[in-house]
Specification:
Helices cover about 50% and strands about 20% of the residues. By secondary structure, it is of the alpha/beta class. It has one domain: 3-Layer(aba) Sandwich (Rossmann fold).
Length: about 190
């Protein structure tokens, strides 16, 4: 069984792009890495349950549904991690901004199932995150100002610290400025050893 590496970032930091670049770089050097998008697993589970929720609608649904989907997704990802050779990269969020406040993306019951070895926070400056969000017409994100984005980044960091305390895993921050996703992916790959 390989290691479980959780790569997180608030929407618009480019974490999924960094994960995709990381997978390409790993393949080039013959390293086995598999990326699993936590949100995609949750969306697939919602479809199977007859809810058919878009990923941007998930965070606006009831907290009980979100928690249940989180737990089911963790079981699926944990099982997959036990079956594959190499590292598994879990692309997810540390916190989810909901109508009722911030929801932990990785609550303790999920952490117990995933048993991560490392957390990587992909970050970008609030102004850049705002620009990326405004340009992304494929998503249905709430409008936010730079101050709100800075708060999201802070909550993500706080949640990462809490997860590290609960799991003993390390936390690494990787900056992802515009056009530097390959360099960010290289930094993540280097930190994996």
């Amino acid at each position: 069984m390989g290691r479980v590496i959780v790569i997180t970032g608030i929407p618009g930091t480019g974490k999924t792009t960094v994960c995709n670049e990381l997978a390409k770089l790993a393949e080039q050097i013959g390293r086995k890495v598999e990326v699993i998008n936590y949100g995609t697993v949750m969306v697939e589970l919602s479809h199977k349950s007859g809810k058919s929720l878009h990923r941007d609608k998930l965070r606006k649904s009831g907290l009980t549904l979100q928690r249940n989907l989180q737990a089911e997704a963790a079981k699926i990802i944990s099982k997959k991690a036990a079956e594959i050779e190499g590292d598994i990269i879990v692309d997810t969020h540390m916190s989810i901004k909901t109508v009722g406040g911030y929801l932990a993306g990785l609550p303790s019951h999920v952490l117990q199932l995933l048993n991560p070895d490392m957390f990587v926070l992909v970050e970008a400056e609030p102004r850049e995150v705002l620009s990326r969000r405004l340009k992304d017409v494929t998503r249905k994100r709430d409008k936010a100002l730079e101050g709100g984005i800075a708060e999201e980044i802070l909550f993500s960091r706080l949640m990462a610290a809490a997860c590290a305390v609960l799991t003993g895993a390390s936390v690494k921050t990787v900056k992802n400025p515009a056009g530097k996703q390959v360099e960010a992916a290289e930094e993540v790959l280097k930190s994996l050893g």
